[in-house]
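Posted in: Structural Biology > Protein-Ligand Complexes

Title: Requesting predicted complex, nicotinamide-adenine-dinucleotide in pocket

I'd be grateful if someone could produce the 3D structure tokens for the following input. Sequence and ligand are given below.
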Amino acid sequence: MAQKKILVTGGQGFIGSNLIRRLMKNHPDWFIMNLDKLTYAGNPQNLKDIDKSPHYIFVEGDVGIKQDVDSLINIEGPDCVIHMAAESHVDRSICGYSDEFIRTNIVGTYNVLNACMSAGIKKIIYVSTDEVYGSQDSGEFVKEDANLNPSSIYSASKASGDLLAMAFYKTFKLPVVITRSSNNFGPYQYPEKFIPLMITNILEDKKVPIYGDGENVRDWLYVDDNCAAIEMLVDKGVPGEIYNIAANNELTNLEVVDIIRDVLDINEDVIEFVKDRPGHDFRYAMDTSKIKLLGWNPKYKANKLRQAFKETVNWYLDNEKWWREIRSGEYKKYYNKQYNTEAPSQRSMLTNEDNSKFMFKKKSFSDSKKIDETEEEKKVEEEISEEKPEDTDETEEISEEDTEKEETDEDEEDDDVEEEDEEDQEEDDEVEV
Ligand SMILES: NC(=O)c1ccc[n+]([C@@H]2O[C@H](COP(=O)([O-])OP(=O)(O)OC[C@H]3O[C@@H](n4cnc5c(N)ncnc54)[C@H](O)[C@@H]3O)[C@@H](O)[C@H]2O)c1
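-- Reply #1 --
Done. Output follows.
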């Protein structure tokens, strides 16, 4: 495959880090850029093994801030943008953090689409979810042209992104491809989500909280299968088309617990039923014949599904430090110490100083590719300095807001950590399925 420059947004999270690792392995001549805000879900550890590669750069930035997105996409002009930065935890979207879902998942998606349009990007993949279709009755499988019927703030914010993406395609012919995948599982998934929460609770001798009667159905997709589909769509995805991605691994939540218990050889006393999530969708199920026509097929299905669960459990067994630091709140302290900087939640925009760091990183990419873009860099620098008076006001305005917000965020996070430390009851109520 030809050399490509790919921008992944949200690459420091669960699916993003698995995707970047896969792209780097399969396409050593591609250059991968990763724009991520490093929220609580974005962990620098997730891509530590490739961090120093000359074919990779990490740019800390916020898709919710137009300037962060514009500067990167306009300067670098990637061949393809894979937009997956998002607030992704349904429970957080319905218990006090919904503003961030609107800001990142809707405004952030708009910013990315808009920047791609200005820069004339030739392929944009917007990573969405099966949750936009809402709950399905048993035996029903939705196709890509089904109506959107989201139930939570999370799925409504993702569906808004889908609608914006389609509007950019219809109105401006922006070459956007949308993926809607089912629930993923695998290595590096933040332990607030159902499967890693279950595994790590069991490993810490804690009960596994199950919403309602545990009969809700999800179609489980091993993360590498999803990444393989996205990788294929970089070349084969047809602009303006939507692709469902799932493996036909329908399981009730209780069935998932049974598999994990079996892999870990634990008895069923471990289950604790908790009050159901408000608006909890009963079942998601999609027809995936469209993406299969392009040549994608999930590897981890039917009798290989158990192997994927086993590999996931083994990953959590082998990477205890990774999840224990997250669960104990040590991750935040680690971050400050390791990177000798503020905690991620305290930064939410690129300042002018950050911009120059970014230019430096860009230079190192250009050097590695032996491309002389000095003139272009100069032009962009001039443009940035021309815009300065307006930007300065904006920056000050945002900075004040941010300062207030940082304090609130920090307080909230501290509270979170204290609460987690005190008892796990609260955390137990936050089960993503
Ligand atoms: N996990 C699933 O089962 C699943 C299923 C279907 C679709 N999806 C979609 O896939 C994408 C990735 O999901 P995930 O599970 O890896 O999520 P995640 O929560 O693990 O990671 C999200 C990443 O986005 C980053 N981010 C958040 N806000 C940002 C912002 N404003 N600017 C820049 N970066 C920001 C975070 O730092 C993090 O690295 C999301 O768009 C999600 O909606 C996930």
